[in-house]
Amino acid sequence: MNDKTISFILKENLLNLELKDEASKTDLQSIICDVLNVDRAYLYLYGDKVLIDIQVEEIEKKIFRYTQGEPLAYILGYKHFWKQKIFVNQHTLIPRADTETLIEAVLNDYPNKNEALDILDLGTGSGAIAIALAAEYPNSNVIAVDFSKEALKQSEINANQNNVDNIKFIESDWYENLAKYKFDIIVSNPPYIDIEDSEINDEVKKYEPHSALFANDGGLADIELIISKAQNFLKNSNGKLYIEHGYTQSEVIYKLFANAGFLDIRVIKDLNGRDRVSIARK
Ligand SMILES: C[S@@+](CC[C@H](N)C(=O)[O-])C[C@H]1O[C@@H](n2cnc3c(N)ncnc32)[C@H](O)[C@@H]1O
């Protein structure tokens, strides 16, 4: 029998393990909330509550993983993205807040949520983008593509968990199995990190799927392919392609769009004011 209270576990770990900053504190609270299945307010109201042994063990196991550098989303098994709870595993990239820039850009361009759009999400991973758009445009048909069977399995689970039923999942190497389809909108957050990029932190490299992150040719190989073939899969001159990319890549991407004959090329900044999503019209 232990006598550890919620407050004690929080304090002990923040002090002993040098997890002293606000973000770490919030993450530890998330771990405790998850194990106890309570919300954050509970931790403040019932900080004196003594936990039972299995709760303490589970919390401490997860905190240990956290101190080893494992991302919180993998420890919890999910991440909130847009209005959804997206479950993740080692086969899926953890959805990033910056990717919500892409969702906002589409919503800005297509304000009528009743529209019946044909939307393609290339490299769907956890399904985060496809599910957010399918939920925002319930009359639309979304096709979500990935070449990873495991990622597709997880994205289908996420669609079901979020009660979204207007997505078709297709295993495909980019456009390979899409010959019979045409779209109003193509969106993609493809792998765009240069393998040589020294700014990428070790945890990302260690825990997240490399095939979701890294691309050849300075990180541009997949983007180049997606842009060069997109015209064939866009329905008409209103068809648009939205690409998430690294913040230093927007100039090259502008040229790739222009060379492929795209019009109205523009770039949108992310939450940190950095170039993040490029958009162009057929
Ligand atoms: C950066 S992740 C994006 C995941 C998700 N869309 C998101 O925004 O969180 C890129 C995704 O592209 C997929 N991918 C990489 N190469 C691919 C290819 N040749 N064909 C289809 N999908 C590919 C990866 O498996 C991964 O799920």
From TrEMBL:
Gene Ontology MF terms: peptide chain release factor N(5)-glutamine methyltransferase activity
Reaction catalysed by this enzyme: L-glutaminyl-[peptide chain release factor] + S-adenosyl-L-methionine = N(5)-methyl-L-glutaminyl-[peptide chain release factor] + S-adenosyl-L-homocysteine + H(+)
Enzyme class: transferase
Domain Release factor glutamine methyltransferase N-terminal stretches: 22-77
SUPFAM superfamilies registered for this protein in UniProt: S-adenosyl-L-methionine-dependent methyltransferases
Keywords assigned: Methyltransferase, S-adenosyl-L-methionine, Transferase
Keyword field contains S-adenosyl-L-methionine: yes
Claim: Methyltransferase is one of the keywords in the record: yes
Main function: Methylates the class 1 translation termination release factors RF1/PrfA and RF2/PrfB on the glutamine residue of the universally conserved GGQ motif.
UniProt name for this protein: Release factor glutamine methyltransferase
